[in-house]
Records
---
Amino acid sequence: MASETYLPGNILSMAGAAADRLLSAGSGDAALLYLYLLKAGGKFDPAGAARALKWEPKRCFDALSLLVKLELADGTQAPPPPAPAEPPEYTAADINRELEDASSPFPLLVQEVQRRLGKVLSTNDLKNLYTIYDFTGLPAEVILLIVNWTVEEHQRKYGPGRIPRLPQIQREAIRWRERGVDTVESAEEHLKRLFSLRERSTQILALLDIRDRQPIQKEKDYISSWVDMGFADEVIRKAYEETVMKKGNLNWPYMNAILQSWHQKGLHTVEQIAAGDSQRPRRARPGAGATAPQPAAPGEADRRARENMERMRAMLRKEKKGGETDGI
């Protein structure tokens, strides 16, 4: 029963002033991290917080920074967010050693990637692929899923038969690893989200009067964050129109700042924005109200995502079977 949630027991207490500051900030991330700190006795453990909240480390540090500004956390106890590690400079000897290791999956990975790209990998290509394999530590199956996804996206953007360069695939692999996508299971879930986001991105670009091209990576990041915030189509269009009125054209950072401001105030519909309803912060419920986003019909996006996943799996099985036939 819901009432049991409030019964005495293992109780966490919060000062009224702290609750007031969190409510006025309107940040769900800050509130969740504050609950984590209460349970941890005020000690900020970056790795522990990331695991408990299922966040990327940077998101934890961003929420902590806001708590420090609200004087609800001690910033001196936490180190600055770690800078992304740079991959080492691998040598030809490193790669040859791995290729000659009969127990390593790397030789098979090389042949599968060559088969998928339709070319023999150059020395620099091999360095890029080995960087993905060794630096990210991703399983070979996940790397193949990344290769297939990157090839498909590249051909959607530039046309059939075009293939991406290995540095592009490496950047995509590092993005997956930074998001914690490091198992076949998590990769499949991530692909479902990417397929769904691809469809939603097309719809949002149309709201921004962009119909003749695919979004670049930075634009994809903006769109992904707007989807996560749960904005209705009308609100995204309103933010776009306000941006054009102010800047004269589409300015992605400026538009993103508008939407972030509304999100922090709990304003997710045109009606809420018009009323200036910032007294009761709340998150929009997906599918609630007449102004909720209207993507594909219920279940349609999931169906297409499953079909795409099955197609990718079939492609991988076919490639592996072909490799076995060739004596790989």
---
Amino acid sequence: MKNAMLSQRNERNRLLAQPYLTRQMMYDFEALLRSPNIKLLTGPRRVGKSTQAILMLRGKNFAYLNFDDNDLLKDWDEDLAEKLLNEVYPGFQYLLLDEVQNVKGWDVWVGKLFRRGFNLVITGSNANMLSGEMATMLTGRYLEIKMLPFSLFETRKFNQELTKDDYLKNGGYPETVSQRAMTQSYLQALFDSIVYKDVVRRHKVRNATDLNNVATFLLANFTGTFSYNDVADDLGLSSVATTKKFMDYLHESFLFYYLDRYNNKLKLMKKAPRKVYVVDNGFVLSRAFTLSENLGKLLENQVFIELLRRGFDTGKSLFYYRSRNDKETDFVVREGNKVKQLIQVCYDMSNNKTEKREVDSLVECAGELKCDNLTIITWDEERVIEKNGYTIKVVPVEKF
């Protein structure tokens, strides 16, 4: 175990010496570090959680344990680990635990460390890390930092040669931004790794083929509505309960997100079909789906992920809506109990019929939801539309 820790210390020092792009995030990291609460960085694999954690701690005396390392895990002993940490990192002030969910019983161990006064920074690739006993034990004692792939702004800041068209199709996974030629193969391998490593192994899924079929189905139908019954029927799966379980697993790994239809009555909201989104547009390309037919869907997915990046949360402050006459608005942004904004996404509104359809849907939904803050996000149009007493801002995605 000591050899593994020494090797990881060298890895930490190598990572600290490298130049990095500063992420565009809404957190005050110095203030976070001053807090005794656990700092928990969550998000999908390979979006830069470890890098961000190391950047937070640069210039500080910190210990580092990476649990994506089999050499550390195979002889794991928490008591020995604490003893060795003081030998390898004398006088350390902070402890960085990378991908800690890979440790069996990690939540109990982290709870012990917290009670003993360790100042902890943790990364993890599972949305349910703070469910159950861990959440109960640490209520009010952790600060969550949510991370996603690069935004359009970050991607172009990192590589000024990339266009917004490139970002729409290839997404913003950090390791692909400087090497676009490898994007498809990299994301194909990452998709498989999330499905088979993060889900199959963690949850001991017996039928990995069915799980992979569900994941591929969701990717093929991104931005579309679904019900668990429909997914099971379309894939010929015998159990709706298993289908739901597989879809929950795929959300836990931050690969897919599910958006509720807005309704003031919670019971009715949970019964309505939901919409599915994928964490990065590049995954669509990685499975060789036809991009030319999906430009509108890709733009809608890009806007959804940007809304998550700004702190909106599915089921709490972000929804879609369908009117009594079956007119749809892509995104309902809620603040408290009040609808704050309605957002429609339309790649190209140059056709009069398209414009009428999108505007009429938005206005009808605005009337039912009593909201007058209306936006349509397009690829490159910018103007203002007046309709039935409503002012609609048409905004190009780059300005949004």
---
Amino acid sequence: MKKLFLFDKTSKGDGYVPNNLIFAYASGLTGQNLGYFYITNWLKYFYINILHVDPMKISTVFSISYIWDAINDPLVGAFIDKRKYKPYRKLRPFLLYTPPVIGLLSTLMFVNTGFPQGGMIAYLVVLYFLWDLFYSFQDVGLWGMIALASPHSEERARISQWVSIGAGAGAAIAGLFQQVRSMLLGAGFSEGQVFFACAVVFCLGGELLSLNAARIPEQVTADEMKSESVLQSITVLRHNPKLLLISLARFSLGLSPKVQNAYFFENCTGYTVGKINITGQTAEFLFGLFGGIPGTAATFFATKIADKIGGMKKILYISQFTAIGIRVITFFVGYNTFAKFIIMTLLISLVNLPGSLMDIAYRSLTTDSIDETEIKTGLRTEGISFSMQNFTSKMTNGATTLIEGVLLKTLGYDSGRKAAGLAQSEKFIKWQWPLFCLGPVVGAVLFLIVISFIKDGKEYRADIERRLREMRESRNSAQSAV
């Protein structure tokens, strides 16, 4: 009988991963997130403001689709855990075969078909359903590889740090869209052409880049999950309270009363500095660029910071306490002059300093939770565990989209006025600053309450690794004797 948890013979053999393979893995996450953030940030905007679909209708459609997407993800994760696979080939096939399909579907969603409103919604629903199905398999595979790349908690934390940096790079490149959009519009391209061209580059190009992630080795393997059905495989989550708390905490952040940042910047900002005119789109680009630099730099030291302050849970605490305090200060500073805009950007950059480390903390804690679940059940659950990351993101997107749709409708947003170059109502403009600045505080408070119940710490993790190592050695000895 085969032994459990053997190391891949093509690697060092000690459970550690060469830097060049971690870089390849990280670049794959860059590609995936390049397309993902373009879709999540701009697909709804494209349908509301470029194709002029009613905001409430499109928000309702996206909210329902997000809920279905969220239900779909655990099914995908459980299927991945349950399916038969060769040793060290549990997740890598999904990194190889899904990207081209995802890239094509992503691009097609930004095509202006010219259909009537009902036809456009039907077209979007069909493509989005297919996109999400393939994306779920790829996403579980990409992030689940962190848990399989090494049996060592500290090494997994290092891998999580660098792939999170790679993912952040993809999000940062996608964040250049507003500036690229402004340049292309100035060159004579239409809005529809701009959105489609960027979909080709960001989505299709990004997914092809994501193929690099398949170079990371799987160094941990086990027998397939034993259960009679996929649904029964999902029930293993009851043995993983840490993961459930992480998911609930992340969802709570989405319960904030806010709308997409573009509404604030495009309708409320715009500055003249000497002879230079800074539009709202340019202001948003500068805000994202300079506000994110400190946080981006901090990600390179995530593991050292966590070790110094006492664990990944402490990073989550610090991030939200910082966000609450600085956002309240920023609200009273204001934004209506260029000097205040600079101060606002600098203050929010301080929020992003610990905030940028949150995804690394989530993933590191998730891989630790898989070890804890293995001690309780004897099963490796990378599929169902990392499907919860996507599940939570979709549920959060559903909640935020519904909240955004209600707020836009309540405040009287009119995409037709925007298309005509007219200002929105005074009521709409009045509420943008409070929503932009203080809206996230609501979610931060809820987050802190939930995260306080998570167990973490250096001694706690060391004890889990020791118990797991002893359990594996005992199993291997027993199987060798058979």
